[in-house]
Amino acid sequence: MDTETDCIQRHPGMPEACGLTASEAAVIMAAGVGATGTHGQAEGWDDSHNAELPEWKRRCIRAYGDCKDNEWVGPCYECLRYCEGQHEWPAKMCSPRKRRR
């Protein structure tokens, strides 16, 4: 883990202690979870470290993690930013790949 991730974990709910905004900390944590593979369909998503965030933001972060981990179609980071502004994931822009028959 890097220093930012360590700092965020040492100061849960206080990203400013690490020189970050809540959004920046959420993106870093979501990326860390994706990189380590610590969440998946079978395990579920543990976002207890984001318990202080509004539910819409937690959904945005989960969708971003799924988008990156599962190689969804669309620009995941742009969709995260859209979701932060509109409070809903833009499914028309970023979504799971359609299965081939």
Please give a structural write-up.
- The protein is mainly alpha-helical and 101 residues long.
- The chain has one domain (3-86).
- 49% of the residues lie in helices and 0% in strands.
- It has four helices and no strands.
- It has helices spanning 3-10, 22-36, 55-69, 76-86.
What class do helices, strands and sheet pairing give? mainly alpha
Coarse morphology? elongated
Distance between the termini: 40 Å
As residue ranges, the low-confidence spans are 38-42
DSSP helix count?
4
Overall number of strands = 0
Largest sheet: none
Give the C-alpha Rg: 14 Å
Determine the mean pLDDT.
Answer: 78
Strand content: under 5%
Order of helices and strands: HHHH
Helix percentage: 40-55%
- Structural domain count: 1
List keywords for this structure.
101 residues; mainly alpha
SSE blueprint:
Blueprint: H1 3-10, H2 22-36, H3 55-69, H4 76-86
Helix pairs in contact: 2-3, 3-4
Question: Nutshell version of this structure?
Answer:
The protein has 101 residues and is an all-alpha fold.
